[in-house]
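A note from the maintainers: we've had questions about how concatenated examples are separated. There is no special marker in the raw files; a new sequence line simply starts the next protein. For clarity in this README we add a label.
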Amino acid sequence: MKNKTNSENQSLTIDDIISEIKSKLEDGDYIYRGERKQHCKISSALYREYFDNEDINIDFVGFDLTYVQEGMLKIAQKHIGKPSNRLNEDFSDPTSRGVIGLIINEAFQRSIETQTLELLTELQHYGGKTNLIDFTIDYLIAIFFACSGEPKEDGRVFLLQRTKR
């Protein structure tokens, strides 16, 4: 399926797609992404909302999606309740920190990052536009998402070879 265009893929069945993917598996380990519609490039729904939407006129010089996502997170956190900052405040005074305080503060910061990621994934799961881009290790899930759009839209499946660390 490498470099095949929309017109070349029209006659492919799901079995053909699975066979193509399985033939690639011999070359290495892959992650997959299924898109129900063909976009110019792999991008997040939030990116496409602002950069690919002809109805939105934005001066893109200095525009950062991070600020949009942060604003969205603040609104979502108001509805679910913010994580407590009390523990972090208890150890904000450098004289009271010590080693234990630094460890607790670091754990708290990791907890906030985890909660933020969990909230973003939850928002995305329910249709929110986030800056996350989903990949899966199961090609059948990618095929599902590629086929889950409108019947007249051509979906696609991306295979990205995983590198060893």
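[label: protein 2]
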Amino acid sequence: MYEDIIYEKKEGVGIITINRPDVLNAFRTKTIDEMTSALLDAAEDGRIGVIVI
């Protein structure tokens, strides 16, 4: 689903990892869009209490 990030959920924690090592994890519009999507998903999930980026 995501190309620029890795999004995981573990024991009430949402973990977003930027995964663009070839460009030193530089942000681009797609990265921001994917992070926004993951953050919205975490916000809607009542089991997530904290997000780590």
